[in-house]
């Protein structure tokens, strides 16, 4: 039940909230401009309905390797427990060893903290002795049904979803064949998309990509889904994909998604093909 304003429960809640202090280091990270991920950082990963705190261990071009982290509430024998001073969160953390996964950059939402101790050199080993100062391993769960064991399963699922996340279409480049098979002429294409012949003909020949808005209009004529039509576009260049994958672009993509009442994945495709269309003009 929600506390009623003026009640003693509400007053205690307000007093407790007033006593909370956000560490200056956390505030600095939360308000700083987003940058590309680096090892030792603590990030929030967000993909669709999944949100997970994680520690970055290594960074590749477009991919990070990360270990799920949680506040020290549950732990098992394969969990490395870090003291509060080991990160700028100033809270004890549990690193769930053995669940390390590669994730695409675009699954990262925001950096929330930074480790203040070096990551152990035994990232691929379990229960190695050279833990950071003040760190320790958790204890064995009493049974597979224990809360810690169930929690590990939840974390594994939480990391598996963004790890498997994909947004960019391979791009078959089959749009000209698709149009010809359906008997769509350049004139019909221009009429459907409200384009002059000089712009409709390069689209019909597959020299220019369709935008997401154009794909939606053309899908009606072809009797297909908009995503199927977009998939017939040429694949976006790697440089465009890499730029849209960077975490700093998520705020712009979310604004684009909100403007067009679509999800973030659709907004990424809209942006990618919009960039290609502009470049081709």
Please explain how this structure is put together.
The chain is built from 11 helices and 8 strands. The protein has 281 residues and is of the alpha+beta class. Strands 1, 2, 3, 4, 5, 6, 7 and 8 form an 8-stranded antiparallel β-sheet that branches.
Quick description:
The protein has 281 residues and is α+β, with helices and mostly antiparallel strands. It contains eleven helices and eight strands.
Describe the secondary-structure layout.
Layout: H1 8-19, H2 24-31, E1 41-47, E2 50-60, E3 63-71, E4 79-82, E5 93-96, E6 101-104, E7 108-114, E8 136-137, H3 147-163, H4 175-181, H5 186-193, H6 197-205, H7 212-222, H8 226-231, H9 238-245, H10 250-260, H11 264-280
Antiparallel strand pairs: 1-2, 1-7, 2-3, 3-5, 3-6, 4-5, 4-8
Helix pairs in contact: 5-6, 10-11
Features of this protein?
alpha+beta, 281 residues, elongated, 41% helix, 8-stranded antiparallel β-sheet, single chain
How are helices and strands ordered from N to C? HHEEEEEEEEHHHHHHHHH
- Helical amount: 40-55%
**Major sheet:** 8 strands, antiparallel
The fraction of residues in strands falls at 15-25%
Tally of helical runs: 11
Shape: elongated
Q: Tell how many strands the DSSP assignment holds.
A: 8
**Overall pLDDT level:** 83
Distance between the termini: 58 Å
CA-atom Rg in angstroms: 24 Å
């Amino acid at each position: 039940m929600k506390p009623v304003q003026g009640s003693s429960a509400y007053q205690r809640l307000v007093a407790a909230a007033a006593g909370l202090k956000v560490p200056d280091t956390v505030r600095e990270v939360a308000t700083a401009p987003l940058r590309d991920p680096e090892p030792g950082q603590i990030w929030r990963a967000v993909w669709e309905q999944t949100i997970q705190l994680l520690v970055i261990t290594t960074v590749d071009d477009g991919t990070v390797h990360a270990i799920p982290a949680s506040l020290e509430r549950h732990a098992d024998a394969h969990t490395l427990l870090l003291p509060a001073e080991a990160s700028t969160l100033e809270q004890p953390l549990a690193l769930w060893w053995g669940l390390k996964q590669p994730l695409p950059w675009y699954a990262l939402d925001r950096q929330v903290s930074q480790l203040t101790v070096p990551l152990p050199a035994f990232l691929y080993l379990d229960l190695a002795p050279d833990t950071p100062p003040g760190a320790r391993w958790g204890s064995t769960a009493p049974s597979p049904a224990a809360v810690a064991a169930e929690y590990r399963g939840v974390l594994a699922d939480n990391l598996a979803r963004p790890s498997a996340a994909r947004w960019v279409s391979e791009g078959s480049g089959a749009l000209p064949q698709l149009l010809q098979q359906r008997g769509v002429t350049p004139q019909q294409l221009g009429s459907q998309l409200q384009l002059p012949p000089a712009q409709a003909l390069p689209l019909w020949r597959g020299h220019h990509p369709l935008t997401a808005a154009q794909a939606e209009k053309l899908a009606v004529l072809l009797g297909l889904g908009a995503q199927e039509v977009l998939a017939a576009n040429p694949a976006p260049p790697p440089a465009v994909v890499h730029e849209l994958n960077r975490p700093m672009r998520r705020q712009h993509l979310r604004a684009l998604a909100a403007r067009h009442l679509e999800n973030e994945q659709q907004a990424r495709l809209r942006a990618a093909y919009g960039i290609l269309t502009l470049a081709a003009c």
